[in-house]
Amino acid sequence: MKVSCIETGRNFILVVLVFDIFSSLSLAAVSQSSPQCTAWLVQSIPTDLLHLPRVSGVLSTADVFRWLAGNSSQTLDITTQYWQLRAQPENPLSGDYGYSKDDLQNFGAHEGYGVYKALENAADRNVNIRLLSHSGRNPYYTSEPAELASGRPNVKNVTLLLSEWWEKGLIHSKIWVSDNRDVYIGSANMEWRSLTQVNELGIYLVGCPIIAKQVVSYFDNLWTLASLNSPDYTKIVSDQKWQIERKVPCWSRFLDSQVRCRSPLPPFIETPHVAGYPVLSDPNMFKLPIQTPGCNYLSAFEPQSSYLSFAPPELLFGSYQADEQAWVETIKSVGKGGTVRISTMDWLDQSQYTKQTVYWSTLSSAVSEVVFGKHATVKILVAYWAHLFNNADQYLNSLLYSNVLCSSSKHNKCTGKVEIKYYIVPGFNMTGPAIKDGEKTENRYPAHSRFYHAKYAVSDVRAHIGSSNIIWDHFYSTADVSFGIYDPAIVSQLEEIFDADWNSPYAVPVEEVVEGGPLHCVGSSMSMNSVLKL
Ligand SMILES: *[C@@H]1O[C@H](CO)[C@@H](O)[C@H](O)[C@H]1NC(C)=O
Ligand SMILES: *[C@@H]1O[C@H](CO)[C@@H](O)[C@H](O)[C@H]1NC(C)=O
Ligand SMILES: *[C@@H]1O[C@H](CO)[C@@H](O)[C@H](O)[C@H]1NC(C)=O
């Protein structure tokens, strides 16, 4: 019997039952013996989202992290921005401070301990573990990788400050590679809140050495950077493409070829006459059969196209494409009259962290182009949370203005549209330590929790899953990695995940949150008051 993710609705219950059977059967079977590459979508959903329907066949991030550690016998490579798998309710500097054992149990903090324990076990099994992170977040920094490395020569812990290479850069990719064959790529950081208090999305590839090898090449590049003295290898460029001055590695193609250095990393694509990194006409595609037991167990014995994309472009190698190109091409892969679904924490057509601000409309332009040219509907989910950029609503309104332009002339043959919703996780405005300065606070959840953090795009033919938020910095100065695939089963399951969020009471049209709407974008500012009216 062929089961498809599209057969929901009337057959929903049956499909769920069959999925459950398949999931448990296949999970036992896939990992050890199967020579076939297998892909599963992976999610974290904050606790207490009672009105969010679950999509069956999707794995949980905590399980997948535990399994990656649990199954590794030789090597385990992990990059993450920061670490905090273990909650710290007794540390007054921690956003977890003051919560009780029961609270933490309800928050799902034990899942973080479980992942930490699985890593400790892997370290004790003498697996060669490489942990690469940014400096971390106060007050935890890199204490967990340091503890794992302490007294264990098989565990290497490295801090890499990408800001020494790219102005304001940081390690933002969340990748796991176990035994050069099992991989996680997605949005979840190495912290307990990413398992149970934040919406995350990723992909788990099991038994995929061909893909794993290239992820490890990228990892090796970062590892190499960590061992080099950055002042010897960086230059200030007067960037013609983005019209700012900024620091880049000396082999960057943003620099004039006369002043470039020889890259210490594997050979790059030859593009001698371009300032910056061009769109590749033929980026590397894997042609592999990939099974998708979580969605459609009987599909995908045929080879399909899948890819990796990387940022920043100076870390590219061979014919691998930049992450920006892969996002754009995912949007543009939509068929005539089709729908593109996009999830991101932030959406700004500019840089956020550079000294000089960059204007960057690459992704917004791609959206408008398919709205006009292909009559596509583009649905975008953006996080609304405690640390929302204060100009987010202006940019989202500017993108919504495409709808006005689309029908601005009777000569326009434009029937596409953009729809944008904010994802508001209940409790987002009640986060922080339970006790501050010895007093009980009103907070109900720990700091840095209760928000939407998934980053993916899915057209009717192609799914793209990564770690980049939609702002310039993620494509040009932070380390981010994505995996994408043309697979009908993954595409329809990812659409199902998106639609569950989109149609839930937690997703609210931007126009209802922002006073004014698209015609009044100038000077509108989002206030808590407008949310309170919801
Ligand atoms: C290995 O991974 C599989 C799924 O890929 C999982 O079912 C199994 O429990 C994992 N084993 C360990 C020891 O974690
Ligand atoms: C790595 O771990 C060792 C051992 O615990 C520690 O002394 C060192 O500070 C750690 N380094 C980093 C960069 O975290
Ligand atoms: C948080 O926002 C909700 C609406 O989303 C509102 O009902 C509640 O009063 C707010 N709480 C605080 C502390 O602002």
From TrEMBL:
Transmembrane helix in keyword set: yes
GO terms of molecular function: catalytic activity
Domain PLD phosphodiesterase positions: 167-194, 448-474
Pfam families in alphabetical order: PLDc_2
Coiled coil spans: none
Swiss-Prot/TrEMBL keywords: Membrane, Transmembrane, Transmembrane helix
Entry keyword Transmembrane: yes
Parts of the chain that traverse the membrane: 12-30
Record-given protein name: Uncharacterized protein LOC107419750
Species assigned in the record: Ziziphus jujuba (Chinese jujube)
Lineage, uppermost ranks: Eukaryota, Viridiplantae, Streptophyta, Embryophyta, Tracheophyta
Gene that produces this protein: LOC107419750
